[in-house]
Structures are given as C-alpha cells and as structure tokens.
Fold these 2 entries.
Entry 1:
Amino acid sequence: MTQDSHSAFRARFDPQHVSQAAFENDNDVILFLHIPKTAGMSVGKALQHSFDQFHPVSWENVGQSFRQKTRRALYQRTGTPCRQVLMGHFGWGDIQYWRNQDLPIQCATIVRDPLDRFVSNYNYNCSDVHPDKDGFKSRFPTMEDYARQLPYDYQLHTMIGAFFDFDHALAQLTQYYSFIGVTEALGPSLAHFQTSHGLRTELHEHRENTGKTPPQDDIPDSVREIIASKSRNDLRLHQLVRGFYNA
C-alpha cells in the first residue's frame, strides 16, 4: 500500500479528516450496497427515516429491481429536489448500469470482519428464518463445505469488482464511494454518515436479523484457514477502516 493511496483513502473516509456536510447534496442519489451480514438490515431501517426517498432493491431479482429503482430515482431527480438512496444486495456488476450511462456514481456500504461475516451468513442460511434452509443444508452439510465455495475477497469484489492490487482497490473505492463504515462500530459509523452527508435526521442504530457468531473455539481451524486464504484484501480493508473508528 503506497503512501499516496493510503492518504487519499484516509482523507475520503476517516471521520477525523472529513469535514461536516462534505458530501451534502440536496438532490443526490446514493447507492448503498448491502453486503450480506454486515448489519445492512439495521442500517436500512435507519436510512428510511433520513432520506426523502428510500428505494429498497428486491433480493428476488436484483438486476431488474435495481434498474427499475434507478429509473424511478432518476425521474424523481428531474422534479422537486430530494435526497434519495437505493439499498439492497446489488453489487459492482449492477452499478455498471450507471457507469454505462455516464451517470455520476456515489456509493456507500458497511464492511465486517471476513470470518465473522462468513460465519454469521452460514448460520443465517441454516436457520429457520431462511426460506431455503433445507436446500442450503443439503448443498453445504458443513461450514467447511460452504467456506470452500466462498469467492476471493467477497466484500471488495461486491464493492468494486476486479482490481489489480490493493492500491488499485483503494483508488477505486476513493473514486466511487463517499462512505464506508464497519459493523463493529455501527453507531459511530452511522453518526459519521449522518454528519459527513449533512443528513438532517439522526441515524439510530438498530440491531435486528443478526446472525450470531459462535465462540472462536467452535469455528473449525480448517474454516478459519480457508477464509483467511480467500479474504486477504477484505481483511486489509476491514482493518484499515476499523482503525478509523478505534474499534
């Protein structure tokens, strides 16, 4: 990681270096990526009360829903000025719709420790609240089975797609994002999002739909090794941003 890329990243995302209302815009459209098991459901509940228009992207058909909500938000933007946010399980591939139309992209998201996020996601998929619990358990009988199919740097690739090295990843994030928080410091992250974007309604932390992470001793060593081997840059990003919040 070069000093220049780190300095630019810090200036963009560190609460100690971002001025109040730095990203305020009375007619913006923010794309808030909900990476699974990063407190996104809780954040979504907070955002509903802080933006004039909240556009939830349906998880059943992400691509189609994302494009529909995009067109609705853009049409709204040509009328009375208002602040809007699209939120859901979309990723960089979906955001290419904006890029291909030469639309200004402003993204936000929350990241989490890669191991904790993975285990929470696995436990949620195995729980009674997941609609395809039985199908999931038949495909992945053990946590290790599920870990083997985890994509490399799942969180970063969701956020920016492919990247050449970690400096390139930081540059992409600095170019297209205005906020990156961490699940482990959700309250301070939301407070920073509110102040840096000039939101007039206080963002309150809501805790719901939380997949519990078992004690470290209950996580097989093989799973920890697989996640570590596949999440090198996710871990670097998480440690960097978490350090901004002293969490």
Entry 2:
Amino acid sequence: VGGALCLLYDVSRIVRMARRWSGIAVFFQDVMYCAVVSAVTYGMLLVRCSGVVRIYPLVGELCGFAVCRFTVSRLVMSAAKFIISAVKKVVAVVNKVIFAPVLHFFGSIFAKIFTFAKKINYLLKNYLKETSVMVYNHVKLHRGGKCDEGEQ
C-alpha cells in the first residue's frame, strides 16, 4: 500500500512538473493527496486489522513508501522529466510549423474583413448624414439655419 501511495504522489509531482502551479493550487493538491492517503490507510486498517489501529501496518506502509520513494520513484521521475521536456519540444515545433501559419492566415483574413467592415460603416454613416430628409436638416432648410425666438 505504501508503494502504491508513493506512485500516486509521483503522479501528482509529474502533473506539477508539466505545468507551473501557484502555491495555493499546490497546497490544495497536497491536501487532496493527504485525504486520499488517509482514506486508503483507513480502508487498509479496516480490512487487515478489523478497524483496530495497530502500529505494524502503519510502519509497513511507511517502509513501503520509503523503499518505493528511493528506488522506483527516482526512475519514474527522471523518465517523466525527459518525457515532459520532449513533449514540450514537440508541442513547440508543432506550434511553430502548423499553428503559427494557420493563425497568421486567419488573422490576415480577419484583418481584411475588419477593414472592409470599417469602410462600409464609414460609408453608411456619411450617407445617412448627407440626406436632406432628416429632421434637423429639414428644419434648418426651412428656417434658413436660424432658430425661432420661441424655441430658445
């Protein structure tokens, strides 16, 4: 059980290595890991010792964790570092070769569409302003651009 819990901790360490986490996120990951370990240890004590807390299963679990931590865990973590760095390099190359040109292409298309929409918007605004049937233009035409004395 201790070895399995150590490998579970290695999984959480690999997740932390793959991405940068804030201190609060790491704290909650550790709290969740402690809750899982507590539940597994309690279940082991229920099955093996009929729910009685004895020292030898706990020492055995601790020894299994320590043995796994200093043997298998070192191999797993070194392999994980290599795999994570290789995956990050592959993702960088894929991003550079595939996604960057596609994003550039769509960005240029959207820029042209945006420029066209701005021109249409400008033309529509100017067309509406030049119309002589609008209320303020209509009133100014009939008054000669002067206000009546009653409207002041």
